[in-house]
Amino acid sequence: MKLHDLQPAPGSKKNRKRVGRGHSAGQGKTAGRGTKGQNARSGGGKGPYFEGGQLPIVRRLPFARGVGFTNIWRVEFAPVNVGRLSEYFEANQEVSPETLAEVGIIKKPTQAVAILADGELDMPLHVKAHRISKSAREKIEASGGTYEVLPKPKKLHY
Question: What residue ranges do the domains of the chain occupy?
Fold first, then answer.
């Protein structure tokens, strides 16, 4: 097979319909648009939003557009499991959003951090985070470490 032998599969390409080329062609005179009226004109017709003057459904159901209400004050927490802390930190070291960002567990030191309990912690650490789960607190205390809950950061909107 060579390049000049290539051709599309039979039936995959279809000639476009040439309308308005005489009545013997089957689509002459009104060219399949019917007789007069808005939809017969060029650029005529209403968009999908228009419902004949009735209040459109997207205005009748304001929350049906997507997932609904978006809370602009929502604070996203970066989850960090206690099992990952033992990989990156030494015993008695302080774990804070700043140190977590330094070692690359979270992206920015300004991110809100939530400590979760997945994994094992076998050394004492001083953990500072914005949110700590109950079972994560138990694991930190059981390993001889301490925890401190930081105030939730404010989300600034201008």
Answer: 77-149
Q: Which fold, 77-149?
A: Ribosomal Protein L15; Chain: K; domain 2 (3.100.10)
pLDDT in tens, 55-110: 988 888 766 556 667 778 888 999 999 999 988 999 999 999 999 999 999 999 98
58 and 65 in contact (C-beta within 8 Å)? yes
Length of the chain (residues): 158
Measured distance CA(103)–CA(157) in Å, rounded? 29
